[in-house]
Prior knowledge:
With 477 residues, the protein is α+β, with helices and mostly antiparallel strands. It has three domains: 2-63, no CATH class; 90-266, Jelly Rolls (Sandwich), CATH 2.60.120.10; 293-463, Jelly Rolls, CATH 2.60.120. The protein has eleven helices and 26 strands. The strands form four sheets. The protein has a seven-stranded antiparallel β-sheet with strand order 1-22-19-24-17-16-15. Strand 20 and strand 21 form a beta hairpin. It comes from Elaeis guineensis var. tenera (Oil palm).
Amino acid sequence: MIARTRAQVLLPILLFSTLLIIPSFGIPIRKVEECLSKCKESFFYHQDRQLLEKCEQICFDKYDGSHGEGIEKKEGEQQRGEGQNRYCYGEENFEYWMKSELGHFKVLERFTERFKLLQGIGNFRLAILEANPRTFVLPSHMDAEELFYVMEGRGVLNVLEISGRNSYDIEQGQIFSFDAGSQAYLINKDDNKKLRIAMLLHPVSSPGRFKEFFDAGGRAPESFYRSFSTKVLEAAFNTTKDRLEKLFGQQRGETINATEEQIKALTEPPTAPGGWFIGPSKQCRRSGVSLTSRQNRVWYSNEHGELYKIYACDYSDLCDLGVEISFANISRGSMMAPHYNSMATLAALVVEGEGYFEMACPHIEQGGTHYQAVRSQVSPGSVFMIPAGHPVVAVASRDENLQVLFLGMNAKHNRVHFLAGGNNVLNHMERVAKELSFNAPARVVDEVFNAQKRAGFLPGPDEIHKEERGTRPWTAI
């Protein structure tokens, strides 16, 4: 036993020593991942979070380029492709905080775990809650401000206030905002569909870290009431130890299957308004804002797609968080025009459909700036990160629409600049500036920039090629 204890203590020390003496130049991205994996193996199971964080920081400091844009790629296309998934998160990047046959709650790894470029949004976290039909989710609160987006299904959300209880009908396309510490519970009232909710969290205690606190429950999940001494609880509730044990000693899980009668009782008419907002009202809190409602802000719309947008300071809650929200429905075979965001870093969560993102990423080299092309296939549940200033394109597959929820962080005063199409910002350049910039006659520059008349959403690469083939004249043989 003593030998085993010594081994457990020595292993972390040896690992730190190894990390400190390994040279850091010319190391490919897979070394960063190997280093992080060793950290988790050594410190996670020792339940020493501080050592784990120090170990992870050493990995990034030694292996992850000094400019924060990642490791330079100088070894051809194969190695350049290794870095593209750094911007795309999949199922393997989520940690399940709760999982059962009735649903799950999973949290995406911290945005800063991969590279320093996303430090500006390091205090935000993304999570997904899923509840099966006719499932009740226990009440809890978090030490984080919460933004909910209903991705699928319908249900009832209850929030407990000092003044009473507010109840809301929720359905796909609605968004709700809650203060840190808000007591909330919900039920999926549908008989067939799952209830899926995307959550953007802004911790208030520790940057990038939050906890969930359960009042109900017992041992699984553990109620925080069990942390107090029996004498304190007996005095607080003015009851006996036996009654307290019956109340806080059960093991039922965070999700519970409800009977038809219980569902009816929990789905009584809502006590607070829901649905969507229109007009200049600033009272977003607890009210629900439907992003996909036609009456709400349609920013761009044509046969190739639609974009619905809520700016950061349209509503007080979003303004306080510095978050803007948009929802893109890109028609199959179409694409969202090349563009970039001036201030916001976006987490693009794929709600439905498949397609891909392409993005230009600058890397500093001795000869100047080199742009790495990042291309990532996406499907439902994928998260693609778009840092501020990075030109990006989203393309839907030929088979189905691509629906994407964009969560823009640090979005106050953010502006979207399109780089192609009828609203190409470069069209505002003077004639001489165009000639000097592109080393070509202004007429040639205008011919290229003005060829695409559509704005916002455009025919995708495959659609353009179809049009070209359809209009190409026959050539005599």
